[in-house]
Amino acid sequence: MWGLRHYGRETDVAYEWAAGLQRSPEGEKVTPPVVAEVARRLDAIDMDSLLRNLPADAASAAAVCGFGAFHGDLRKYLEDHVAALTDFYRGAARRGMAVVEWVD
Q: Which residues are paired to 29 by β-bridges?
């Protein structure tokens, strides 16, 4: 998600969905209502629109996403990670769970 958020800032792509991924007021604990909002925002992402201007050149795409280098299909990588994160938050929201974020 870091690369996708970086891409949004660098290319002025509207990424209001990212606001839901900010830490909750309690710090690293994302409360159940915030989890539900994150799930809703992730569900609303239109990856085709979001990545429309992602450069086709692998090196340029990696650079605009903030990666020094990337081996593989960056578009697929971003799509797969958003799908996995969406599934995770959707499941947590359905169960009324909180989430603890860990960023290193």
A: 100
How far apart CA 58 and CA 27 sit, in angstroms, is: 36
64/103: higher pLDDT: 64
User: What burial class does residue 65 get, using C-beta atoms within 10 Å of its C-beta: 0-12 exposed, 13-18 middle, 19+ buried?
Assistant: buried
Q: What totals of helices (H) and strands (E) does the chain contain, helices first?
A: 5, 2
Q: What is the DSSP letter of 100?
A: E
0.85 surpassed by pTM: no
Q: SS3 of 30, please?
A: strand
Query: If you search the block for the tokens 């604990």, which residue do you land on?
Result: 29
Cβ(43)–Cβ(91) below 8 Å: no
Single-letter code of the amino acid located at 7: Y
Farthest-apart Cα atoms in the chain, separation: 42
